[in-house]
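Lab notebook, design round three. We kept the backbone fixed and only want residue identities now. Task for the bench partner: fill in a sequence for the structure below.
Input structure tokens:
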């Protein structure tokens, strides 16, 4: 724009737009905020701590789950072993009823002698392991073909057998059973360190006592006097 002052013509200076824009951009950049290096390091540290805590919690959960699983498996294995052994201990000495007199009378099978003889029937016997060695338990009962009797491995006895005999022992960390079937000893459960057996032997007591006295022994001398078994 031109202004007249006497004979002189004056020109007003034009605004310096480029310079103004540059200064405005500098002001905008000065107003921008961000994280410093220290703040970034603190954030990374907190994040790593959270990750470590999460990983530790996951590892603890997995270990606890494994421990619970092992305990449950151990309980189930022990329950299976005691159920099998207990079943045959309760059947120990069982005799079938026969009718060989030609009349209506029946009697228990007199031919069953177990591990003993006709004069002394032996239902339970075993061996006492020396030192830290495991014990061996042997249990016998009569064969009843009408009831489809089986041994500790679920096998039918070999043809011609007069008894069902079961032998329990621990070999290489496994509880094994040798039955009266055609197969050899087989493992029932694994993870067994030892098996100790005590036998309740009936004792002679005075006439004033009306109940039987039992003495638990690791290796009885009279197996025909054994009435209870503790495993």
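Proposed sequence:
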């Amino acid at each position: 724009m031109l202004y007249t002052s006497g004979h002189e013509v004056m020109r007003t200076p034009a605004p310096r737009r480029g310079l103004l824009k540059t200064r405005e951009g500098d002001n905008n950049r000065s107003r921008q905020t961000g994280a410093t290096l220290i703040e970034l390091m603190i954030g990374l540290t907190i994040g790593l701590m959270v990750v470590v805590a999460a990983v530790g919690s996951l590892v603890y959960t997995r270990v606890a789950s494994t421990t619970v699983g092992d305990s449950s498996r151990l309980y189930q294995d022990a329950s299976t072993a005691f159920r099998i052994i207990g079943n045959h201990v309760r059947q120990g000495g069982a005799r079938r009823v026969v009718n060989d007199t030609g009349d209506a009378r029946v009697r228990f099978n007199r031919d069953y002698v177990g591990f003993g003889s006709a004069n002394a029937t032996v239902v339970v016997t075993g061996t006492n392991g020396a030192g830290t060695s495991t014990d061996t338990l042997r249990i016998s009962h009569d064969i009843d073909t009408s009831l489809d009797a089986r041994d500790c491995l679920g096998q039918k006895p070999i043809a011609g057998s007069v008894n069902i005999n079961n032998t329990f022992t621990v070999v290489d960390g496994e509880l094994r059973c040798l039955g009266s079937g055609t197969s050899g000893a087989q493992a029932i459960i694994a993870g067994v360190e030892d098996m100790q057996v005590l036998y309740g032997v009936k004792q002679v007591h005075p006439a004033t006592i009306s109940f039987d006295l039992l003495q638990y022994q690791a290796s009885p001398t009279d197996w025909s006097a054994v009435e209870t078994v503790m495993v």
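Keep this in mind before ordering anything: The longest helix spans residues 37-91.
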